[in-house]
Amino acid sequence: MSGPAGVGVRPSERRGTVRADPIADTRIGVVPILWNNADLLDLAAPIPASTVLDEIARLGYAGTQYGVGFPKGAHLAAELAARDLRLAELYVALPIDRSGPSLQAADLARAAIADLHAAGGDVLVVALAQSVERDEWAGRAAGAPGLTDAGWRELGSLLDRLGAEATGLGHALAFHNHAGTYVETPKELGRLLQYTSPDRVGLCLDVGHATLGGGDPASMIQRHADRLVHLHLKDVAAGPLEALREGRLTGFEAALRARIFAPLGSGVLELPAILAALSRARYRGWLMVEQDTSWEPASEAAAVGRAVLKAMLRWPRNATGARS
After folding, report:
1. 123-128 and 228-233 as β-strands: parallel, antiparallel, unpaired?
2. Which of 62, 78, 242, 290 has the most CB atoms around it within 10 Å of its CB?
3. Is 50 exceeded by the pLDDT of residue 10?
4. Helix, strand and coil in the chain, % to nearest 5
5. What is the model's pTM?
6. How far apart are the C-alpha atoms of 186 and 206, rounded to whole Å?
7. Cβ of 57: how many Cβ atoms within 10 Å?
8. Among candidates 264, 240, 266, 262, which has minimal Cα distance to 251?
9. Which tens digit of pLDDT belongs to each residue from 288-324?
């Protein structure tokens, strides 16, 4: 992956040497939805952006997704630089129905590209907005209503155009799978990649949403290694996941309120297998710790996530991810 200031290329590789484990020193970022959830504003009182950035830096993260209330452009770049942080990504969700993206989708995405570039950020992460039709199928989406053939073509064409524009400015565009949308299951994600150009549209695999969609994240990393440019790491709590699949929970919001996403290492996610798959794929992008909602205070959950991931990255790995 190319980008500003050698994004995605470590100094050891620029010198022509190759580490035995490609992900041992991968940069770890965080998604600040833990502090201010843009979808569930009633969860907690808003926290000032400066406080969020202070906490992200204090906990030792190298970068962040653009968050609620963050400044933009040069102001954001200065705030990040003062804390030795990078803007790892900016996330945008495109409105869509079964026939394809809405008329507003392209404008929303282009505004996001402009904001990312103005702040000197790295990756544009693009997802689909949740829809009423698909939300009731979240967590059990096999056989759910999907995009029409024309809808797939329109979506692929738009993403290719946006990817070309982002690449022209030095940023990768990475598509993000998401529960409650028209690209939730492994089959849907595979079809999305077939409708887009590998040179223009990469993959941001969210392993938590992949789990909700019925996929095995480690296998998906292996299958799509050539498209993977960004990664969201979130664990999934067993109880809420079972309730969602059995229909005792309906809808993605209900799942979030049940705290379906858990601190890394405490749920069903096979993190060692995922890291082994990333190592085999020689992954060089960001590892973004994410947990949409938490029973714990935000900073505590974020601290656990980074500590668990750092510990796992220090383990020697065999092909399955187990200790060697």
Report:
1. unpaired
2. 290
3. no
4. 40, 15, 45
5. 0.91
6. 11
7. 16
8. 240
9. 999 999 999 999 999 999 999 999 998 766 555 555 5
